[in-house]
Request: fold
Amino acid sequence: MAWQEIIGQERVKNILQRAIAERRIAHAYCFWGAEGIGKDALALEFAKTLNCDNLQEREGRTEACGECKSCLQASHLQHPNIQFIFSLPAGKSTSSEEKGTSPLLRLTDDQIQLIQEQLRRKSENPYHNITIPNAAQIRIASIREVKKQIAMSSPQGGRRFVIISEADAMNQEAANAFLKTLEEPNAEVTIILTSSRKEQILSTILSRCQQIRCDALFDEDIARALHERESVPMEEARLIARLADGSYSKACELMGEDLRQLRVDIVNLLRIILTPRFVLKFTHELSNISGNSRAASGDKDRSKLERMLILLLVWIRDAYTLSVSDYEGSVINIDQVEDLKKFVAKFGTSGNLDAVALAIERTIHHVRRNVSVSLALTTLALDIRRILRQE
Ligand SMILES: [Zn+2]
Reply:
């Protein structure tokens, strides 16, 4: 990783670069913003740069060399100066919260192996979301470990960092203990909190941090990164980027999904919506795609539905594009351009298509806000019929 490999975030990079150039490093930062946009990546690169033994100037930026011992340790998340904290499972014994017990000592071998595997993936791709079963909280044992490390003297030159990933996951006990740590800053240590739910962090903690907002990524940047790093064909990369909501982590997760099939499904759905006597078939088809309606209230099915709706929205916007111009360059579903053209010829005045797009956006909003999924979709189907068939 180097600064230029961090996707987007130019404004934040500039703030951190200025801090490096002026050697004015705060005691504590909070990098906040949506999930998967590179907050951990920024924190890790910042820490790596301030520990590199052979700093370099490149295109006006101070870069870690990437090759010295310190850089290699940092890249493998094994740097003695850089502590990376995240949610861990509770562990087995009831005496687990005893003082001085390392949080890792309480875990089973399998759990530790899983954690090491997750860390390896994080070191290869700082956009990787660490996922460990039953690890919803950052517990006091982890914060005690932080305190212990801070109290010790630096094992090697450079600046020490404690990065607390998704710091909002600190439970109350951990947060209170952490607040005390923040209140007694150590001049040699910088603490970086990252969070996609800043509002869940104690305000007394936040007020002691320099807060730096990180922005959602542009679709174009996500698509290019998918193409260059994961060899995703550009066409597909653009489609995934549309679905990823500005989050590169989400885009990486979507790579594994069969979007092609999902797109075929939604075009079928649209066809059914527009046939006479559609209601029975529509309900049947919906339950095929999204699981039964009871399951569809679960978060996982809800997000699958949301993805379908976004795909449908992209498809309708493509149709809109073709209804106002012959230019196919900005069509996302370029492999379906013939279907799109037929659709436009039959149904699409641009006004109609715009109205349908609005109706879909409204439905996505409802699905996100936990409105009954079947109600939202039935309403949408009726809207689409009314608009396109003028019923
Ligand atoms: Zn280096």
Summary: The chain has two domains: 3-215, 257-389.
